[in-house]
Amino acid sequence: MADSASHAQPASTDGQTRRDFLLYATTAVGVVGTGLALWPFVHSMNPAADTLALSTTDVDFSAVQVGQAITVVWRGKPVFIRHRTPEEIAQARKDDSADLRDPQKDADRVKKPEWLVLIGVCTHLGCVPLGQKPSDPKGEFGGWFCPCHGSQYDTSGRIRKGPAPLNLEVPPYAFTSDTTIRIG
Amino acid sequence: MSAYKTNNKMVGWIEERLPIFSMLQHSAVEYPTPKNLNYWWNFGSLAGFMLVVMILTGVFLAMNYTPHTTMAFNSVERIMRDVNYGWLLRYLHMNGASMFFVLVYTHMFRGLYYGSYKAPRELLWWVGVVIFLAMMATAFMGYVLPWGQMSFWGATVITNLFSAFPVVGQYIVTWLWGGFSVDNPTLNRFFSLHYLLPFVIFALVFIHLWALHTVKSNNPLGIDVKSPQDTIPFHPYFTIKDLFGIGVFMMVYLAFVFYAPNFFGEPDNYIPANPMVTPPHIVPEWYFLPFYAILRAVPNKLGGVLMMFGAIVVLLFLPWLDTSKVRSGRFRPIFKQAFLLFIIDCVVLGYVGSQPPADTITLIGRIATAYYFFHFLILLPLLGKIEKPKPLPASISAPVLRGGGMAAGATAKPMEKA
After folding, report:
1. CB–CB of A128 and B282 under 8 A?
2. Are residues B80 and B152 in the same domain?
3. Averaged over B172-190, what is the pLDDT?
4. Nearest C-alpha neighbor of B105 from the set B127, B128, B124
5. Domain, as residue range, for B66
6. Is B260 in the same domain as B288?
């Protein structure tokens, strides 16, 4: 081995020998192979098939009166469904032109203006904002108030004040009838 | 190092095949230790002792704990009520975590004051910082296991920190959770990692000790050992001193365990986790409060996360940030005061982290955060340049022997060969 190595050396002065090529190629294959072998371990920590399979929720909100709100569970998270009053809708539309951190029109955030459907998770660090119960603080903008770090959302669930960077997320959903939706 | 000799045939037989006795003789008996170490030097061995206590109590707790969202809370309550001495194991473990951080923070402040991070101890310091990070991860995941309200919402808030990173943030969070919220897969993996990491820490402690025994202990004077007269053997002098320290420490630790076991806890964690309701005031365990305050001090989400991690990363750069050639704060009149201010600043940050967000609290948090970084990034580099340190003694023995140490140092052989 040592003998052939000393033979190969003078053949090229800049180290571009066949032996070098073999060394680099083997190392590269080894690194890529190890990386590929690691992937199953990493991916095993991503959501499993059964977790993904539980990703739709059907909701019937026929009993929810104007001004009331309900919270349902979707993917282990709370989803807020608020039956907005005409005043809340008007306020949300008026605020389309307000100074918004994450600009979005109210019309783009609802399928039917009276039903506001939102993921009830503060976009700051994931707390559940208050504002669903009549007794809850709703913040300065009549929407939701996060108790953890003081983020405030308006009647369209848009971030108006506090540390959260984004509006409350609108989950994918579709009306399956006038009073039922499927989330997910 | 003197060659290891024994008259015991069995010891000799083992020694020839596995030189464990000579290693112990070299590292735990003869190991030359500066003779002027004060009680602040007890905290390293105390932390090591605490690690053993945590692993021992943890292994036995795991025999009765069930990592499932529907059973975790009740299994912990069963440990408390039905398992023989379960309450003792859990309270030892729970308060042990707090004690562990008390010890390690003291150990770190000791290093900061006496310049134990300076050459040639940089690597020793870095391994220590890595141990600290591993401890924080272990403590955080352990706190999730009882599956109370604080467990759940602490996990939610901390894992959500990673969502601050642009583009990949949400994928990282989903990956950490193993789902779309903190749920059973999260609890399972946290239990797995909470069991694994202490053993990683254990291995890191041995690397820490390996580096320590290569460069040897720093000392309150911060000057190098110059002769064998400056040192005494580790055994019996420091074995007995460390044991005495453990005795004193146990009185404090067990006082909490027996008389105030929930002193460090949050009452909300005795409410089972409810993913639909966030407790009105979420606070992390006390040992995370200063970092939590830094997180909240920054109005930008990503900025806050980066600052919080930066508060620890900055420790890694200390060997270069502190430009002073003098190690020990004892000889640095201005640094001494800056160090005191820094401790006060850390306490203020801790207090701010424990308070609900309000305008004045946020303002104090911002000033304290700014000072934290000012201390490391501006004050320390500057002090080394402008400060005039007091004269250093000629040797460790010199101040004690009032000049006699000089003569002793002159006749002694250099330490390396001893």
Report:
1. no
2. yes
3. 94
4. B128
5. 31-282
6. no
B343-354 average pLDDT score: 96
- Asked if the model's pLDDT at residue B412 lies above 50, the reply is no
Q: What is the CA radius of gyration of chain A?
A: 28
Total domain count, chain B: 2
Q: Are residues B221 and B157 both part of a single domain?
A: yes
The catalytic residue among A7, A43, A83, A149 is: A149
Annotated active-site positions of B, please? 213, 217, 241-242, 285
Of A55, A128, A163, Cβ closest to residue B278? A128
Write the CB contacts of A29 (distance below 8 Å, at least 6 apart in sequence). Answer: none
Is B413 part of any domain? no
Quick one: closest CA in A to B276, which residue?
A: A78
Predicted TM-score (pTM) of the model is 0.86
| Residues written for chain A | 184
Name the interface residues of A facing B (CB cutoff 8 Å): 42, 45-48, 51, 55, 71, 73, 75-78, 121, 124-128, 146-150, 163-165
Name the residue of chain B whose CA is nearest to A137's CA. B280
Disruptive mutation site among A80, A148, A151, A161 for chain B (greatest number of B CBs within 10 Å): A148
Instruction: Test A78 with B276 for CB contact under 8 angstroms.
Output: yes
CB-based contact A163:A151 (threshold 8 Å): yes
DSSP string, B339-379: HHHHHHHHHHHHHHHHSPP-HHHHHHHHHHHHHHHHIIIII
Percent of chain B with pLDDT over 90: 83
Q: What is the pLDDT of residues B105-130, one digit of tens each?
A: 999 999 999 999 999 999 999 999 99
* Residue B10 pLDDT > 50: yes
Tell whether B243 and B116 lie within a shared domain: yes
Q: Is residue B5 part of a domain?
A: no
Closest chain B C-alpha to A66 CA, distance in angstroms: 23
